Amino acid sequence: MSFQKSVESGEVIVLSKTKTTDEILLVISFNEDGLKALPVSGTALGGKSLELSDILSSDISLPNLRASFLANSRDLKSSAKTYSWSEVKFPFSLDQRVSWAFGMTYLDHQNETGIAESVLFQKEIQAPVHMGERISWRPHLDYETEVGLLVDLKKPNKVGYFLAVDFTDRGVQVMNYVKSQPAPSFRKAKSFAQGLGLGSIAVFGDARVWPMLGADLDWNGQRVQALRATDCAIPIQGFLERVKEGQANQSTPAARDFDVILTGTPGGVIFRGPSTWESVRLFLSTFSMTGAKKAWLSRFAFMKPQDRLSFKSSELGYGEIQVAPD
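^ that's the sequence the OP posted. Answer follows.
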């Protein structure tokens, strides 16, 4: 079944939220021009506000949940309204959560960085940036287009999918990188205010949705990344199992109503890892590992103030994030 057919049948639910009134929207259909959606706040839950855990942890099936959303509307076509992408945002708060994040899950990204094994680390989410907003500039700012997952690991039959932008400070990452233990440098380089960009919709379905997903990124009008979930080296069940293992290894596991998982980026980021010969030559020219790392970083033209990132996905939505003027 196609993605659009899954949405029409209710096997997949798409939600968004208005920026002005914070009203949850059930998205009926969408394309690059906008969304057709119906306000549903409280209609299925006895008037109380809709929480993410209500969807992921509920025993109500997605088709039944969608039906309950629509029950108050006799005429869907007349009740649904068209919204532009600039009028909506991601429907749930992820601020101040600690996500599980994966690196090196796409072969082309492994090849461009020189890191051949996947990395699991934790990323602190602080003041995530929504589509249509600006991210503060920093000297070594790089982009990573990803699919984010929302899941209650105790009931993993439902999964929320969203477009995620894993912003990274390559200067922090490179200067703190240790080949034998890369995870700490990944976490430090990615856990800063506005370090996560959020798409404007959340897509809820089961594991069958995963291979349907894709997203393209244009940087200042030039295509730089083309994500296809089918190219990912880890299947969706693999992500869930790895996160469960990570939780089991924590000395003090945190109580969670749901988990946020970032699944890694394909090739096309700004940074590239040096070859073995380039690493040796840089070290010999500086006789300092710190100097060699700084020299390598200086070769890249990272994001600049007023740069624009444009995201396009027929499954995860559309939007743009701009780097703020310096």
